[in-house]
């Protein structure tokens, strides 16, 4: 019963976040639809509000992770499609930067030729002077690229920590406990202690991943203009919410297909 209540808290936290994103998106789209390039104060407030809401969400996740971090890494309240694209319980921090590249029409390569790409992107006729993400300057692109490199490096370190923790499953003591057990999955105090230790370690990695997600967005927002921040925030929320809806629709389609399978088709699949 206690575990059930805990899972409800996890799911409620996520659903509250989804509802908040929908509400924030509505405000952003309304402000952007007015097409006021000089409304920097309003755009700045909307961006700051979005950051604050995400910060509050990560704080709640940090508290929940102390109780059951694995549930946040592969949340049962998300669709399989959403979970397939998760990186340590959320989106990759660099995704917001890739989204900027996509929206401004610049395809940047992280190599020695980046400067040429930056120069070409800033002078491209496709980038019109609109004040939004289509109007990113060459200097902004250089700063964003530097942030991209730094973020990818930080992601790599966290991925390495996760990989090391996953590999520890095959080490002592879990491997030896499983080998010596009379029954598969036999419970013991030793097992519970080791699993709890792994859960705590997972929680620490998750919290650090959330910190990287937050710090990356904050630094990115410091590079962009208020209007560009609002433009990016709206696009990011639409993508996240769309992924959820696409995942739900796909699962419904899969259920519908299963119901349509005839007995003969079922036999063919089972061969």
Automatic annotation (TrEMBL):
GO terms for molecular function: sequence-specific DNA binding. InterPro entries: Seed_Dev/Stress_Resp_Reg (IPR051886), TGA_domain (IPR025422). PROSITE patterns: DOG1. Residues 7-253 form the DOG1 domain. GO terms for biological process: DNA-templated transcription. PANTHER family: DOG1 DOMAIN-CONTAINING PROTEIN (PTHR46354), PROTEIN DOG1-LIKE 1 (PTHR46354:SF7). This is OLC1v1023259C1. It comes from Oldenlandia corymbosa var. corymbosa.
């Amino acid at each position: 019963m206690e575990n059930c209540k805990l899972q409800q808290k996890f799911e409620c936290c996520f659903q509250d976040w989804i509802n908040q994103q929908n509400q924030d998106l509505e405000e952003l789209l309304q402000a952007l639809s007015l097409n006021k390039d000089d409304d920097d104060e309003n755009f700045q407030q909307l961006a700051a509000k979005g950051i604050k809401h995400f910060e509050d969400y990560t704080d709640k996740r940090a508290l929940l992770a102390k109780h059951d971090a694995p549930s946040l890494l592969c949340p049962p309240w998300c669709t399989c499609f959403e979970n397939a694209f998760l990186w340590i319980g959320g989106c990759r921090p660099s995704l917001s930067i890739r989204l900027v590249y996509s929206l401004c029409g610049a395809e940047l390569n992280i190599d020695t030729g980046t400067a040429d790409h930056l120069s070409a992107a800033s002078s491209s006729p496709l980038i019109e002077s609109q004040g939004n993400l289509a109007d990113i300057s060459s200097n902004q692109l250089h700063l964003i690229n530097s942030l991209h490199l730094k973020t990818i490096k930080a992601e790599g370190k966290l991925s390495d920590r996760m990989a090391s923790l996953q590999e520890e499953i095959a080490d002592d003591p879990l491997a030896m406990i499983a080998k010596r057990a009379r029954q598969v999955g036999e419970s013991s105090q030793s097992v519970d202690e080791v699993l709890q230790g792994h859960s705590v370690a997972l929680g620490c990695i998750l919290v650090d991943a959330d910190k990287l997600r937050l710090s990356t967005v904050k630094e990115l927002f410091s590079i962009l203009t208020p209007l560009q921040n609002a433009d990016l925030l709206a696009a990011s929320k639409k993508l996240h919410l769309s992924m959820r809806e696409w995942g739900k629709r796909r699962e419904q389609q899969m259920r519908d297909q299963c119901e349509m399978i005839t007995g003969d088709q079922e036999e063919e699949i089972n061969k």
